[in-house]
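STRUCTURE REQUEST FORM
Protein name: Co/Zn/Cd efflux system component
Source organism: Methylophaga aminisulfidivorans MP
Requested output: structure tokens
Priority: standard
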Amino acid sequence: MPHSHESMLNNQNEQKVFVSFLLIFSFMIVEIAGGIISGSLALIADAGHMFTDAAALALAYIAFRIGRRKPDTRRTYGYSRFEVIAGFINSVTLFIIVGWIFFEAWERIQEPPQILSGPMLIVAIAGLLVNILALWILSRGDNEHVNIRGAIAHVLGDLLGSIGAIMAAIIIYYTNWTPVDPILSIIVSLLILRTAWKLLRQSLHILLEGVPEGASPEEIENHLMKTIPEIESVSHIHTWQISSGRRMATLHVRPVESEPARKIEQLVERELRSHFNIDHATVALDWRQESVMCSLIADDSKDHEIFQPRHNHEKSDKTTK
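Status: completed
Returned output:
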């Protein structure tokens, strides 16, 4: 039953993301056309911010779809890292868009063009309403999923861009001071730049198999030594991420001499999952006897196979023969 409940939530999240993507992407095209017709760079900049929203929603949707595919012999971890690669490409594209907006804004500050405040205001208000609708759709039901929370953050940022475009249109309508349009477009671009930098840093960190936040080797070693008295030492700790929500770890554990192997493996696996959100771990047990090791592979999907240590009398029997 828990599995079917989780599948139902994922289907609901997938539908919410897809509908929100259609809304944002469709109006992004309208906003670009409105910016060109009215001569407003603020609208075009807001459309650029909407592009980041649409890209984020598309990545979230693709992640849900591809996440259904099971691992195969060529990709034993599955296809979830696709979202990280797409996020990296998306961030690089955003830097290019921001650079173009900055250049265009500088040109317009020096020579302010004529701007039609009426059409600009209408398009900006419509954009605000579209973002409010998308936010309402995404906020309904399960909003704790990492992809949903990221999409909500993008839409909230775009709300600020729409408000900025409305303010610019009102100021131009009453004062005819057109430089406010490129100035506000720069402010919106800074919001895009912040999102792009965060996305670039996160995607590069995952692609370089960096240590997940809050799961450094030192933190894991200290926690295991503190909470599991059955082990003597922890070493050779490596942690990394396959995607934004999947953490992996490998480590060596030396247990107290009399403790059974399966008990140690279960205790370590439980602590890694509950305290560090590591759902897949490979644990190697280092025994005190010379040249003896017990390898344990922790895998949620099947029972664990325990390799018992080879005793010295087996070697002596072979020698006698």
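Reviewer notes: The mean pLDDT is 77. The CA atoms of residues 73 and 79 lie 12 Å apart.
Form closed.
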